[in-house]
């Protein structure tokens, strides 16, 4: 199985990007993982919230194949402990899905079309984090999930 993380807008914080890159490198020992950055919407300040979600939604849906399992990182999603999330990953791998695609949307969330296409929603916390921080937290939890599945010591630190 492949796992892809789609995120809207680039990370402009070098320190965060180095940490994200480190976890992506570590994930390579467990699974084929890809982080794909979708460009920020041009002239977003001239668009309504709904128009911005719509345009971002179009970009997101262009990157989704019909067989992909689409999971949204959304504040209204289900919350997991790290151990529960590792079990979730195992179930998805056992399901025979070829590619699991997680998506971090823009500042206003997702369009209705993206919600309709998704297979589920996950929340990393009840707290609000910057979209850049969410990337780091997610790749770290993904890595942690695989160490749990392999019964490796990282998750006990």
TrEMBL record:
GO cellular component, one term: cytoplasm
UniProt xrefs under CDD domains: RlmH-like (cd18081)
Superkingdom assignment: Bacteria
Gene: rlmH
GO MF annotation terms: rRNA (pseudouridine-N3-)-methyltransferase activity
Known catalytic reactions: pseudouridine(1915) in 23S rRNA + S-adenosyl-L-methionine = N(3)-methylpseudouridine(1915) in 23S rRNA + S-adenosyl-L-homocysteine + H(+)
Class of this enzyme: transferase
Protein name: Ribosomal RNA large subunit methyltransferase H
Source species taxonomy: Bacteria, Pseudomonadati, Bacteroidota, Flavobacteriia, Flavobacteriales
The organism of origin for this protein: Abyssalbus ytuae
């Amino acid at each position: 199985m492949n796992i892809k993380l789609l995120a809207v807008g680039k990370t402009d914080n070098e320190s965060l990007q180095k940490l994200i890159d480190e976890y992506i490198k570590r994930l390579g020992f467990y699974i084929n993982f890809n982080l794909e950055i979708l460009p920020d919407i041009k002239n977003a300040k001239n668009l309504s919230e709904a128009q911005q979600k719509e345009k971002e939604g179009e970009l997101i849906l262009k990157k989704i194949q019909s067989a992909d399992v689409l999971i949204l990182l959304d504040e209204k999603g289900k919350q997991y402990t790290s151990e529960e999330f590792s079990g979730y990953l195992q179930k998805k791998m056992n399901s025979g899905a070829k590619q699991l695609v997680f998506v971090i949307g823009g500042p206003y969330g997702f369009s209705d079309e993206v919600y309709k296409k998704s297979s589920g929603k996950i929340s990393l916390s009840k707290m609000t984090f910057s979209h850049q921080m969410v990337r780091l937290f997610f790749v770290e939890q993904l890595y942690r999930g695989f160490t749990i599945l392999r019964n490796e010591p990282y998750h006990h630190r």
